[in-house]
Amino acid sequence: MEETREILSRTALSLPSPHVVLDLLSVGVCPRCIFRLFGVHGQAYCCSAITASVLQSFLEEQKSCDNGTVENRLVSDGLVRCSYTSQESEDDHAYCCICLGVLQLACQQDRKMLTTSKEGSIDDFTATIAELVKRENHHIDGFSIEVSIPPVIVANERAVWMYMKKKYNCEDWFKDKIPSQHISVKDALRLSINTSLENHLGVKSGVDLFRIRLNYSHLDASRMLQSSLANNHTCKRQKTDKKDNRDSLDDSHKSNLKNSNEHLCSESDSVILRTLESMLDHAFCEHFVIPPEKALKPCLLTTTCYRMPIYIGGRYLKFSRRVSQSCWIIDDERMGEASVEEIVGSNALLVCKGDNYKFHAAGREDIDVRMLGSGRPFLVEVSNAHCMPSMIDVQLIAEKINNSDKKYVRVRNLKLVNNQAWTLMREGEAEKQKQYAALVWTSRALTEEDLHSISSRKDLDIIQRTPIRVLHRRSPLERKKIIHWMNIERIAGSCQYFLLHLCTQAGTYIKEFVHGDLGRTHPRFL
Questions:
Q1: pLDDT tens, 368-392?
Q2: Quick one: which H or E segment has residue 214?
Q3: What segment(s) does the record annotate as region Disordered (predicted)?
């Protein structure tokens, strides 16, 4: 108790006169909301012993000491005696009129009370969250807390500031405690539970991929807020009508108002917040109860924990002409025997124990084209990985892929990447020149003159219209490309088959350059 008194003594230095704080307690503002409204920092938030009744007793004692009337607890002249009593603190089942129980750590989960008292225990609250993390089998080395609150809390806070402005505007302390200096409900909640949650989880909080999200909602209060905003919208429409000298609303206009109200009810939180921000003080006071009423039930809390996507990147080589880059299914029938996406992604997902994955590559090749050389850069994006893979785990993924019996795909330079993820992809895109080898058949045997003509061509400009074979899924465009060089490799025993080695600008359609695609690529190879 002595420690609590010391914390309150330090906290009181940042608070206005005791009669102001007692007044806020009387209208239903919880201690933590009072602290944050006046920019209090420190241990006050994470001390469960500071309840409304404890804070009231401390302040009344402090006020009485200042007035020199400890024994009979008289109130100094000019101050209104606070109607808030300890009995109300213990028996009144209402929750904070601003945060709706969020900072009192009193909430509902699955329509059941998470806490058994109005002032929830920090340790009990964080123990429940830690249990969820462990139950979902997350392996973590840190965490960060995300908080989502309903817009009605923002409206409630403004209503309390309007109440104080009306009552204490002439007092010197009010001019120094402007709303911009306050601490948000979200930050105050983090200050309240952070240390305790660190102790339960055995790791430190900070900027981390693993997130614990606390999502608060309050259906009844949100409906009342939307109703108030709808009334404000109606008043604006009525004022506009008066300017147009309309004495009454006809049926069609009433229908429009009804549709507008329904539209407001479906507005997103961001739109509601912008609407509140745009309201002038006098309009706000006309449509909202000031001070706001206490809530008879707390917010509903939905707790989720997840890890932000992790990326495993490298380069892949494809050796089979029956393997597509991504999973290719037409009319429920698989095209090819497998895909690079499935071979690499499924192995990464298994080790990371994630929910799902996405495969990204720097460009693509046709199913019947092999990917050789240094390989094509790729990324596997694993969502909500329950295990953060180590370097050894990543090597195990590579070994499993490379040692597969079918030898369809091989990966190299596999590693866990963070902000380098998309840089790796850009490396592939920056490789402006690509080398290919194509097996070509001609209707006549090539002469020495043909060979010399082909090998002497350098930086040949060509124009390619979208190939017929991909026209159903690509825009009909003309693309200018460059063939940097070509060489012919003869095949022993054949005068009409040969290997064409060529270096081209990235994105060139090689097959179409060879056969011309019915004139859609010109000039063509021969």
A1: 999 998 899 999 999 999 999 999 9
A2: strand 210-217
A3: 232-255
**Side chain identity, residue 262:** E
* 16/314 Cα distance (integer angstroms): 60
State yes or no: is 405 an active-site residue.
no
Strands 112-113 and 144-148, bridge-based pairing: unpaired
Sign of the Cα torsion 403, 405, 407, 411 reads negative
Tell me which amino acid residue 159 is. A
Torsion, Cα 217 218 219 224, to 10 degrees, reads -130
* Among 393, 314, 384, 309, residue whose Cα is nearest residue 348: 393
Burial class of residue 184, CB neighbours in 10 A (0-12, 13-18, 19+): middle
- Cα–Cα distance, 69 to 286 (Å, whole number): 41
Distance CA 404, CA 312 (A): 19
Query: What's the pLDDT tens digit per position in 79-115?
Result: 333 444 444 444 456 899 999 999 999 888 654 545 5
Q: What is the largest CA-CA distance in the chain?
A: 119
- For residue 319, what are its two tokens? 């050796």
In this prediction, residue 337 carries a pLDDT of 92
Q: DSSP states of 360-380 as a string?
A: EESS---TTS-EEEEEEEEEE
Q: Is the confidence at residue 254, as pLDDT, over 70?
A: no
The one catalytic residue among 366, 393, 405, 450: 366
